[in-house]
Amino acid sequence: MKKFLGTMTAIAVAALIATPAMAGTYAAGPLPSEFGGGEIPADPDVFKAIGKASKEGSKLSSGAAKCYSKGAKNVSKGSPSGVDTCINNTKKGVLEKYEAKVSGILAKSPLPPCHDFLADGGLIVGLVKGFNPLIYCQSPSGAFIDQASF
Hints:
Blueprint: H1 2-16, E1 29-30, E2 39-40, H2 44-76, H3 83-88, H4 94-108, H5 120-135
């Protein structure tokens, strides 16, 4: 389940922050339609910074998925979930780690002004949370046969 959730969130993050692999000479310009829009910046340093920030978004989605998975396991044992602490703890929370890494990237290299990578943290955690009803589904009768689709 964690892999499914991580994969689906990574796809959503990739659609939000497109970073194709560079092959050969650096070529700025519009991305192909498969990316849904966007452009490769003229400055290769900005492009590298975008790639680093995007990677941190992937780490955040994976970390948030682990928080929810561990939280569900805790709840199944009758314990408090611990999800809020796992995500928001000011020292070890996955959101705090993401924000620190992106702030570090911003301090070293410019990121495009058209996108707020720091604001992505809450969006990414929200995307992961949005998959929970699909992951932990239950049919009204408990038999799972009356749910039409996943």
